Predict the 3D structure of the following.
Amino acid sequence: MKAKKVFLAALSLFLLLSVALFGCSSSNSSNDSGNKSSDDQVTIDIFQFKVEFKDQFEKVAKQYEKEHPGVKINITTVGGGEDYGAALKSKFASGDEPAIFNVGGPQDVEDWLDKLADLSDTKAASLALEGTLDGVKKGDQILGLPYNQEGYGLIYNKEIFKKAGIDPKNIKSFSDLENAVKKLDKEKKSLGIDAVFAFPAKETWVTGLHLSNVFLAPEFDSNVVNAFNAKTVEFKYGDAMKKFIDLQNKYSVQPTVSLDYSQQVEELFSTGRVAIIQQGNWVYNSIADIDPELAEKNIGILPIPIEGYKEDVIPVGVPMYWAVNKNKDEKVVKESKKFLDWLYTSDEGKEIILNEFKFIPAYDGYDSSEISDPLSKEIYDYAQQGKTIGWVFMGYPTGWGMEKLGVNIQKYVSGKMKWDELIANSKKEWEEARNK
Amino acid sequence: MRKQPLWYWLFLAPVLIALTVVVIIPFIFGLYYSFTNWNGIQSTEFVGFKHYINVFQDKEFLHSLWFTTKFSIASVLFINLFGLTLALIVTQKIKTYKILRTIFFMPNLIGGLILGFIWQFIFIKVFANVGNYLHIESLKGWLSTPETGFWGLVILMSWQMAGYIMVIYIAYLESIPQELLEAAEIDGANRFQRFRHITFPLVAPAFTVSLFLTLSNSFKLYDQNLSLTGGGPYNSTQMIAMEIFKTAFSENQMAYAQSKAVIFFVIVAVISLTQVYFNKKREVEM
């Protein structure tokens, strides 16, 4: 009997220890290998958000490893704006800090300030296009490097326009646009479209961030930092904004509150069931997957007219920045900067940026004729002519654009809120968020 | 409780340690953070009960609390009604009862997110097409108003959970002694009387389990909510779990969200415990 008890105790102790030891042993071994390799090899852990180019990016990292023996690059990709922020936080909290990660704008820079290395000594920083670094400057320090540029506007189907006898070149103002839309709407049946627009009010980033940006950027001089520092918001071009929302909502496939991105781009636009959508150059690949011919030849982009301000500008901005973690080993920080420099300023890197990633470059010294997709090309042309306004929505109070304004716009289009209430409430929410 | 030998605790240790590490310690951390200005990266200040006071003036939070309550009442009612009905059907002498049980249980094997997307398709596409064809206006535009969003969620949830609850009822129904039913039948009790006075009291313990499961499940619902309506339109179908998630990760107010989560925890705990307490009492009486 006693022997049995001793045996049981011994067995349970063994089980317990084995659990504990097993847990430790795996982490020990990984630590060991980490230490060993750091003597002769530098490991750069990259934690990035852009799912669309994950495969290409991993290929590039392999290529870089081959050319630079002694450098190892680990890439982790977590996609989709808000999930990335949460994942990054837990990544840092776990103690396994990445060397290179992404920041979105002034608010992120503020939040992560303790971690961000100064990148002003990189070649890429000196070549970044004017205005693209505004959101990540802190004094003399440059704390991020732009990924690329993106732009959005009204993407239209050239063939439908042609059939209806509308020349997109003649659309130069809001009233031109309104007339064109009315004409399209009248000939809906013969053109074979369900409606003129697909207005995805369900996607609060389309309405609360992108749409609102066009009408709020002028009052912040198109500078994201001004928006970030602003204690209040005026809605100076609120009337123009209302008109534009009304236009899209009225002539859209209904009901708009439950219309989402994939319905808008894939189901309705790519199949030619609507003529115009408010989207950006990132939809090119989705359209190309469904109808390569349409994507290649028959889509173009129109500016979103701001009545009373400028009616021929495209909002162009930087969606995300690369940041380097300064708490890492000096060697790792140095190699990380070197990698980013290589990616954006070497000839090889440039080639990849244009042809593999299909980015609109945010840096000087690129051959624009090599930009491969028509939307990006058109946007780049607008940028060359200076017909752009900036992206200020990264400077909105956190969550304000999507959770407050975007939601209010949903209420507005379902008739639960008047426009005056929308303006008043959105202003109030901005101020409250700023005074917290 | 008598004193347990050493090996008892040693055998229990792995579970206790796991529970402490993944549930108890994070819970205590969370409680602590809810009193600070933690932003997910660092906390610099101790703010006391500030967040807790703010929570009760937070319209959005109160709205989602009310919505969740309404939803829970409706779905608990429907799930148990359907679950019991299904259980009664498949315990009758039908030839296909085995297949039927499998079919009824199946929705429960599909993940909540996927279910949400499937039903989104049904509500938006199928309903609209049927509505167009038969000219029924009320079938169009589902999920684009708060009411249809609410009923959409209830339908989805009942469809998913009913099969699971059915299994619990079946277990109790099959343990009812046949002699009692036969005796009652001989005494002249009709179908309904037999159900009302014999079956129903004897499956009462199943209600405890089922009500507890459905209530806490509906209260904590997140993935179905996320994929079916995403809280829309205009956040009117946003449940508490989602509201808390958005406060934390979209508005980046980690500590504030944490205090909401603590309140949420208290509410769920109180409801569940009271409910179990009352149901237990009833069982004993019988």
